Amino acid sequence: MTDDRGQAFALEGVLGAMLLFTALLFSMQAVILTPTTAGTVDQDVKSQLRSTAHDNLVVAGENGELEHLARYWNNGSGRFAHAYDTAVGYGWEAPCSLGPSGDSPACEAFGERLNETLSGRGFTYNLVLDYRSKDLQQTNSTRVVYRGVPSSNAVTATYTVILYDDMTLTSPAGADGPPLIGRGANEFYASDIDPGPVYNVVEVRLVVW
């Protein structure tokens, strides 16, 4: 009988240890997996958003829409035609897409695509053009779309376009004007930086949050 009781106690001890180990393992997994899972979801969302922003720029760049946008300048207003800036208080909901019927198809297409893939899904974005200063010592920026300060979770995508001396403005007000190299002082946001055929190098920067 003593042997039977001893075996029973031993079995209870083993089962108790297994239950304790299982409970401990479960609690450790619960503590560790929760933040990891949340972080993974957040990173996945940011990765998808970054991919969407990048794809928007690549498609627009390959279609010539970004090069077109970089010259969509209105000399009269001193800003991009139909630009949007909450800080200053002017503009449209997206570059060119809500402008008058005289807008170019290239500019409308890019703006509508941003509306569909970003604004239409609840995301906010800024669209900025960075370009080289005349002395090549710094990079200057001008806004096309500005909706405020990005959050800490913002993602950024960029695409580079090259402007040449013989290009003209593409906005409705400037499409028939002289080429970039022939424009007067202060008539265009960027200066000629190269003695050759290159006028300036512009980086289109899309910040999304």
Structure description:
This protein is of the alpha+beta class. It has one domain (43-208). 38% of the residues lie in helices and 21% in strands. The protein contains three helices and seven strands; from the N terminus they run ααβββαββββ. The strands form two sheets. Strands 3-5-4-7-6 form a five-stranded mixed beta sheet. Strands 1-2 form a two-stranded antiparallel ribbon. β1 and β2 form a beta hairpin. The chain is globular, with a radius of gyration of 29 Å. The termini are far apart. Residues 23-39 and 98-102 have low confidence and may be disordered.
Notable traits:
five-stranded mixed sheet; alpha+beta; two-stranded antiparallel sheet; 38% helix; single chain; 209 residues; 3 helices; globular
Could you name the ranges where pLDDT drops below 50 across 5 or more consecutive residues? 23-39, 98-102
Q: State the distance separating the first and last CA atoms.
A: 73 Å
Strand content: 15-25%
As laid out across the biggest beta sheet, the strand order is 3-5-4-7-6
Shape designation: globular
Number of domains: 1
What pattern of helices and strands is seen along the backbone?
Answer: HHEEEHEEEE
Radius of gyration: 29 Å
Structural class by secondary-structure content: alpha+beta
How confident overall, as mean pLDDT?
77
DSSP E strands, number: 7
How many helices? The count is: 3
Helical residue percent?
A: 25-40%
